[in-house]
Design brief:
Elements: H1 4-10, E1 37-38, H2 44-48, E2 79-93, E3 98-116, E4 119-141, E5 144-169, E6 172-192, E7 196-220, E8 225-233, E9 236-248, E10 253-266, E11 269-277, E12 281-290, E13 296-297, E14 304-305, E15 308-317, E16 331-340, E17 343-344, E18 351-363, E19 368-380, E20 388-401
Antiparallel strand pairs: 1-4, 2-3, 2-20, 3-4, 4-5, 5-6, 6-7, 7-8, 7-9, 8-11, 9-10, 10-13, 11-12, 12-15, 14-17, 15-16, 16-18, 18-19, 19-20
Length: 411
């Protein structure tokens, strides 16, 4: 039995002529591995600052990167609602070929509210991972030559989360996110023969609960504060199934068999972050470790994992509340990240990195905002017959504060 993983681990398929279809949150040939491209739970503030957030306490913006930060949003704000949309352009390049595709959709939906002075909460919906690729190449099969192999994948895993933050003592806060992960992904390998076609399919149907934790401590100085934060996630394991089918020229099923059950173990991760806060600005940096050497994908046993360290840094200018013109009220943000990719493919190791910048434009007397963000991400390499992927994304987020809960007075 031919398996999808045996083809991709070799690396040579990725330099053959290929096409990729825009279907999901991410469109990447690297989503063939495991559960696809894993997404981080963020808000518009995090995305425009390179994903940083472990050590950020903002009194105006939601920060799902560290659940301990939920209590930092201050009165008179009682509710925050955020929805984000994006359009993305991906360009793929190998030694021999180039291709490009575009996609778009919803980034996330977040809602924040406060139970009391010491207890705040957030709930939302965000993508957890995505699979989206289609690669076609001719290969030899036995005595036959130029048999078409088509490798395709699609689907998403999403997370519906509920987070809580508790102010335990002065300057110390603890938080927890509980996420229900659901959805499905499908990966297929199709071999077109003269009169028949053979298809192998791996499918994940997820219904899992995942928990992550965070803590923050704030050191106050005269005009500044230093926030130290930590986060921890124990990882999660998904299960899937494998199926093989043989079809005739009329697409009628000749035989069908269920293969082994599949297991995808996503490893633990932990991070530490620092945030230097002043009245008008925040400078922050995160360092996050993921123990990928403990990961395992049962349908891809030949993969070589390596532990990763992700460095993120960002800057936030909050805007001047006493500005005499509209643009003086705008908030500016910028950031970057860099990390080593978790897999060595055909003995090749390579980093992924990205840059982002954004502006937050206040509306409705400054209580709400429209956030615009641009990001550039780079993944892969053209070395050793692999693919270099460059992604550009434009995001727009609408943030509505105090939508409920405040009684307004009219003259």
């Amino acid at each position: 039995m031919l398996r999808l993983t045996q083809v991709f681990i070799a690396g040579t398929i990725l330099c053959a002529p290929f096409t990729l279809q825009a279907q999901n949150i991410f469109n990447s040939p690297y989503s063939v591995y495991g559960i696809g491209m894993i997404n981080n739970r963020t808000s518009s503030m995090n995305r425009s600052m390179g994903g940083v957030g472990i050590g950020i306490q903002d009194d105006f913006n939601l920060n799902p990167v560290n659940p301990a930060s939920y209590g930092a949003i201050s009165s008179p704000i009682t509710h925050v609602y955020e929805i984000g949309l994006y359009v993305e352009s991906n360009r793929y390049r190998s030694v021999q070929n180039t291709d490009s595709k575009s996609t778009g959709g919803i980034n996330n939906i977040n809602y924040w509210f406060k139970f009391s002075k010491w207890w705040a909460a957030s709930a939302g919906l965000a993508p957890f991972s995505s699979v989206g690729y289609k690669i076609t190449t001719p290969r030899a099969l036995g005595a036959s030559s130029d048999v078409n192999y088509t490798y395709s994948g699609s689907g998403n895993l999403n997370q519906l989360y509920m987070g809580n933050a508790f102010n335990i003592v002065k300057n110390l806060s603890l938080g927890v996110n509980i996420a229900y992960i659901f959805g499905s992904t499908t990966k297929s390998e199709n071999i077109d023969l003269a009169t028949q076609s053979l298809t192998y399919q791996n499918q994940i149907v997820a219904r899992k609960v995942n928990v992550d934790f965070g803590a923050q401590y704030r050191f106050n100085f005269k005009k500044r504060a230093l926030v130290v934060g930590v986060v921890y996630d124990d990882g999660v394991t998904f299960h899937g199934k494998q199926r093989g089918s043989l079809y005739d020229a009329n697409a009628d099923t000749l035989t069908s068999s269920a293969g082994k059950k599949l297991t995808y173990k996503i490893p633990m991760s932990a991070g530490i972050g620092l945030g230097l806060h002043s009245r008008l600005s925040v400078i922050a940096a995160d360092l996050k470790y993921t123990k990928w050497t403990s990961a395992s994908f049962s349908d891809q046993n030949g993969l070589v994992f390596q532990d990763t360290w992700k460095l993120s840094a960002g800057y936030l200018y909050k805007g001047n509340p006493n500005a005499e013109n509209y643009f003086g009220l705008a908030s500016l943000r910028a950031g970057f990240y860099v990390q080593q990719y978790q897999l060595k493919l055909d003995g090749t190791s390579f980093p992924s990195w990205g840059l982002s910048a954004g502006v937050s434009l206040p509306v409705f007397d400054g209580k709400s905002a429209v956030n615009l963000t641009y990001s550039y991400d780079r993944l892969g390499t053209t070395s050793n017959s692999l693919i270099l992927q460059n992604s550009q994304k434009i995001m727009i987020d609408v943030v509505i504060r105090d939508l409920w809960g405040i009684k307004r007075k009219f003259d």
